[in-house]
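Extended Data, panel c. Modelled sequence:
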Amino acid sequence: MYYNLVPTLTHCRHMHNRESFVNAQATRQEPDMTGIWRGNDGSVYYIRHDDPHVWWAGFSDNGSGQNWTHVFHGIRQIGPEGVVISGNWADVPRGRNRNNGTLVLTRSEDQLTKVSGGIITTTWQRW
């Protein structure tokens, strides 16, 4: 109903100086990751990016999810090494696997690269 309206920047009143405000605005201007991404292992990821949050549902086997299907929630941050996404993932009953863990990724344009974590996929490309 009202979810398409542009919100006002009420969070600005909590910031203590201009530098914090400028940094927050720079963070908000990063390209949106929402969409379909393809993993280097043939997996398909449906990503939702609502800054700073990143969610996804990942499916093995060209999207069928028979071997594994997992969900992820992470936070996107800008650090000295660039854009970093860190969060937690867990397999869900659609696939055979029942694992979970943490995951850290970096982003460069339309590619994500795994830094650490226990999933098979190591790179993602926007599809």
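The longest strand covers residues 69-79. This feature is highlighted in the accompanying rendering.
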